[in-house]
Design goal:
Blueprint: E1 14-22, H1 36-55, E2 59-67, H2 70-81, E3 85-90, H3 105-112, E4 116-121
Parallel strand pairs: 1-2, 3-4
């Protein structure tokens, strides 16, 4: 939420909470019908944040898209609707040898988007705040 503080400079910003469902297989369709369950779950996760932001007096829209890769989906969305700023919530970078095989979505978006891109790390849950596991 602290990353969204920059929005206070705008009079009435329109915030789009956007999620991309990645379908990397070239043989899989990009039609949304086969992915309706995933789309519904993604929208439900974003709706809680949307309600809170709306309660703060902001105009909020929730969008979920299907794309071959996440970075391309984000860049395509920003170009199609003329975004001014994109906030990316980053996960912790991979460590060890896995980092050589992982491609950073945020790096690809920063290089390709025609608008300002800001990144903020997602806070990791500490072991004390995680929900208890069920055995």
């Amino acid at each position: 939420m602290q990353a969204l503080h920059v929005l206070s400079a705008f009079k009435k910003p329109n915030i789009v909470l956007f999620h991309v469902i990645e379908v990397p297989s070239r043989t899989a369709t990009l039609e949304t019908d086969p992915y309706q369950d995933e789309i519904r779950r993604a929208k439900n996760r974003l709706n809680d944040l949307s309600k809170w932001l709306t309660g703060q007096g902001l105009s909020v829209q929730v969008k979920v898209a299907v794309a071959r890769n996440i970075a391309d989906g984000i860049v395509e969305e920003t170009e199609s609707d003329g975004y001014l700023i994109v906030f990316l919530m980053k996960r912790k970078a991979k460590r060890g040898w896995r980092r050589f095989f992982a491609r950073s979505v945020s790096q690809r978006v920063v290089r390709s988007a025609d608008c300002l891109v800001l990144t903020a790390p997602l806070e990791q849950l500490s072991p004390r705040t995680r929900a208890p596991s069920k055995h």
